[in-house]
Amino acid sequence: MTTELSQPAVRSLRWAAILFVGGWGVHVLDHLRRGMSASPHAIMIGGMIQGLFVVAAVVLALAQNQWAPRTAIVVGFGSAILFTYAHLLPSFWPAYQDSFVSGPRINVTWFSWLSAVAEIGTGIVFAVAGLRASRTVEEVAR
Hints:
mainly alpha; membrane; Integral membrane protein; transmembrane; transmembrane helix
C-alpha cells in the first residue's frame, strides 16, 4: 500500500484500529473483573480465538498491509455480530452465550454493558474504516 499512504481513508483505518484495540481491551478487562468462571467455557475459548484475530487485524492496519482493509471488515463486523449475540441477546444456547439480558448475569454491572457496547461500536467503526480504505485502494489501483 505504498502508493496509498497519503490517502485519508487509509490513515483513518489506522486510527480505527487503535480505537478497536481500546474497545476490545476494555471488554477483556471486564471479563477479568467479573472472573474467569463468570462466562461459559465456550465464550472464554471463543474470546481468546477472537483476540488473536483482533491482534492480527490491528497489526495489519498499523503496518498498512494490503490485506488490512479486508481483514478490518471481516474482523470488525464479525466481532460486532458475535458480541451482540453473546452479550446483548437473550440466551438461546446458554453454553455459547454470556447474556447480560437473561441469567445468570454473574457480576454484570454498568461497566459490563459499557465494555460490551464499546467493543461492538469500535468493531463497527473498524469495519466501516476498512470499507472506506478498500474503496480507496481500489480507486488508486485503477
